[in-house]
Amino acid sequence: MLITFKCRAAPDVMMLENLAQYLVGIVGKRLGERGVITHDELSVAITKLESAIHTDKQERAEHDGHFHEGEDGHEHHEIPPGLAQRAYPFLDMLRAAQKENADIVWGL
After folding, report:
1. Cβ neighbourhood burial of 85 (10 Å; 0-12, 13-18, 19+)
2. Could you tell me if residue 3 is inside a domain?
3. What per-residue confidence (pLDDT) applies to 2?
4. 26 lies in a domain?
5. Backbone dihedral region for residue 74 (phi beyond 0: left; psi -120 to 50: alpha; all else: beta)
6. Residues 66-81: what's their mean pLDDT?
7. 33 in a structural domain
8. What range defines the domain where residue 7 resides?
9. What's the predicted TM-score (pTM) here?
10. Which InterPro entries did the record assign (predicted)?
11. How many domains does the chain have?
């Protein structure tokens, strides 16, 4: 199922429910049928999401040495997108909402 986040300060952001639940959880909210991240909550939400992205990048960098791309005897495999790639549209929305003192809502 798709979840659409709406904010007057940014274009809508749509994502699959499992990713939405994960990202909303990172910022300290629960993904219910409807929800809101108020403009008063945005500073903390942005900090939490940026921290999670930073941690994910560090962990991925540590594990990049374990991939054996192009080496004989190792099958090719794709490295899945990291949190940064999946979270940036939502993070951009959070930042835009903060600049305009706007709330972010879903489920309306």
Report:
1. exposed
2. yes
3. 95
4. yes
5. beta
6. 58
7. yes
8. 1-52+101-108
9. 0.82
10. DUF1840 (IPR014991)
11. 1
